Amino acid sequence: MADKTAWVVFLLVNSAFILKYTARTPYSPLLFLVLWLVAAAAVVWAFRRIVSSERRARWAVTAMTVAAVALIAALLIVVDPLSVNVDRWSATTYWLDALFDGVYPYGVHTHVCETNYPSPFPLWHYLNLPFWLMGDVGLGLIFFLLLLVVTLQWFRRSWRLTAQALLLLLLSPAYWWEVAVRSDGLSNALLIFCVVLFMERRRISFTTHWPLAALIVGLAAATRLSAIIPLGLYLAASYLRSSRLSLCLSPLIVVAVVAAFFMPFILWDTTTWPFLGRNPLLTQSSTGNPWTLLAMAAVALLLILRYNKNLWRYMNSTAAFMFLFFLVAITYNHLVNHAGTHPFDDADFDISYLTLSLPYALYAIAAPKTTPLSA
User: How far apart are CA 246 and CA 211, in angstroms?
Assistant: First the structure.
């Protein structure tokens, strides 16, 4: 049973989405919030009684997964992505369109406006290539949901844990917002979460397999900057305890892996050097400021000391840190750029970043506290 931290993160993230997007309807946002809280509490209470055995939990996971995949597919068919003022879908689609047309991919704008450009790093686009070839990168939403279910079950061998975590995800308005707008932010977070579980199960850390750990961090960093945070929290303690060779070479391996993915775009045109004027590093580093990052890094170090070789504490602390980190970053942007407007009317106050904390909150709620941490 989780302590209050993970529940607070889960409730705050979803409450923010309810309050922001129901305010655009004729109805009361507070009424929507109360109705969701009551309904979610009733479903969770009833569900825990239903999945009283592993056999029942397995059937519940199967039923929820099939229903979720069907609903995601239906939303992909019904919702026209061009009608949504969110750039995540076109940022990947237009990037891949440009790449195969021989056009510099980071120079194309999204469907939102002509000053909005793709921000994901190259590897994330490549991972979405199969879905692009199938006609809609939104199909990745189905893949990453299935990846989460399979990884949770493989990691813990507990249908009850998998069922509880999956139920909470499917009860999240924040998750269904991601689906409706074809956002890939949470999908990336689910991937990194599964990577953490894989490393934990295989006992991969800087003290056991440092070259492999550095390679994995480099690959994660080649998808999005935000992917570094949970992996950094997970691996920092083992890195500090690792050999001198690892301490020196691991950062170089991470940088080399990221640079390898960026190099084709850096050298795309050595005459006009378009990479210098338009690249994802400019976009993804625009949230927050150096002082904010330093302050949050200090908090991260305290969390590393706090979880003390316990996976549940790591999940709980990471959920809290991810939520606070992005809340501070988007609030800073809002106060600097649009302090006179309501946060929910400000595009810089992008609450979609808050969903990156959800996978860790879900695990901390569903899992027991006594799980040791191998890293």
Answer: 8
CB contact at 8 A, 138 and 91: no
Residue in this structure with the two tokens 């305010």, named with its chain if needed: 23
The Cα 242–Cα 240 span in angstroms is 6
* Cα separations in angstroms, 307 against 81, 112, 194, 258: 41, 41, 19, 29
Tens-place pLDDT, residues 1-14: 456 899 999 999 99
Chain mean position to CA 241: 28
Angle at which helices 358-366 and 311-337 pack, to 10 degrees?
Answer: 150
Distances (CA, A) of 249 to 121, 227, 232, 243, 363: 23, 20, 16, 10, 33
Residue tagged 């302090």 (tokens): 339
pTM of this prediction exceeds 0.90: yes
Closest CA to 93 of 83, 102, 81: 81
Residue 347 scores a pLDDT above 80: no
Q: What is the pLDDT of residues 214-234, one digit of tens each?
A: 999 999 999 998 899 999 999
Please give the structure tokens belonging to residue 269.
């045109």
Report the Cα–Cα distance between both ends of the chain, in Å, rounded: 23
Quote the CA–CA distance of 272 and 268 in Å, as a whole number.
9
CA distance 22 to 324: 23
Six-digit token string for 33? 């919030």
In the 8-state DSSP scheme, what is residue 53? Answer: S
